[in-house]
Amino acid sequence: MNAATISPSSSKIPSYLPYKTLQLKAGNHIAYLDVGQGPSTIIFLHGLATYSGSWMHNIEVLQKDFRCIALDFPGNGYSDKGDLPYGMHYFSKVVIELIEALGLTQVHLCGHSMGGQVALTLGIHYPQWVQKMILCAPAGFEHFSFYEKQFFHAALGFAGMWADEKQYLKQFVYNSFYQSPEQSDPMLAELFELLNQYTKADYRSMIEACIQAMLNEEVWTQLKKCKPETLVLFGDMDQLIPNKLIHPYSTEILAKDAVAKLPNAQLKMLTYAGHFIQWEKAQEVNQAIKHFLNQH
């Protein structure tokens, strides 16, 4: 394995972006940002259908005090795409490969939505790599019964037959904001450009595999095994977690119930905020992260 600065000739990444690449043991490459410096390192884990750029408002501030690394999961962003074993455990092992390749020991994990479930998977199964965790509107706190999973899979398949990828992505991101969703347009513009690197089949299969992995690689029953000290952040107007069609109760109720199961966790609810809290409430999230990580 080696970590190397990307050259335009070896990647579809625009040459002006400061990404690096890592070749995984399986041979495919992941892209990641690595900026800032400080006594400790934060690895940022993005959510479903997004990429490392979803942390831009956080990294630009936090890099003054921490080394900030944000990766694109395989199949996402500027990382290699194709027929890959997408899932929470697979993504967790990719994170560990990155940690090892960069010669790090323990790191702080900061995960949003699906990335939060990946962080929880690491905290439960590979806690030796994790110092502290920040979970921004994490997936994984919601329990789905067998029949609820079947309903979810059926609805996903039906929607997938009709979905226009760009319209689906725009609606998904806009639904993640409580106020002024158009503030995400710069990120959406880059995500639309990234869509050109996919075949339609690869994109749809990646999205569906990630959703099914969030349902099937459940962490809800194992939260009590997650030992790292954890800060959980949720927006009080989150419309995506919990799934309102299946579980019509408040985000705060879900969050309090899950945080109570974690051995060493605290919850902070952000007012007038949706699912994309690290963007919509960047200043509050950055302050909460700095305060939490600077505690001893």
**How many helices does DSSP assign?**
10
Query: What percentage of amino acids are in beta strands?
Result: 15-25%
Query: What gap, in angstroms, lies between the N and C termini?
Result: 34 Å
What's the gyration radius in Å?
A: 18 Å
Cα shape: globular
Placed side by side, the strands forming the largest sheet appear as 1-2-3-5-4-6-7-8-9
Quickly give the structural class. Answer: alpha/beta
Residue-averaged pLDDT: 90
Properties at a glance:
296 residues; globular; disordered N terminus; alpha/beta; 9-stranded mixed beta sheet
Task: Give an account of the 3D structure.
- With 296 residues, the protein is α/β, with parallel strands linked by helices.
- Helix content is 39%, strand content 17%.
- The protein has 10 helices and 9 strands.
- Helix 1 (56-62) crosses helix 10 and helix 2 crosses helix 3.
- The protein is globular and about 45 Å long.
- It starts with a strand and ends with a helix.
- Residues 1-11 have low confidence and may be disordered.
Concise synopsis of the structure shown:
This protein is an alpha/beta fold and 296 residues long.
Task: Give me the secondary-structure topology.
Layout: E1 3-5, E2 19-23, E3 29-35, E4 41-45, H1 56-62, E5 67-71, H2 88-101, E6 107-112, H3 114-125, E7 130-136, H4 146-162, H5 165-174, H6 185-195, H7 200-216, E8 229-235, H8 251-261, E9 265-270, H9 277-280, H10 282-293
Parallel strand pairs: 4-5, 4-6, 6-7, 7-8, 8-9
Antiparallel strand pairs: 1-2, 2-3, 3-5
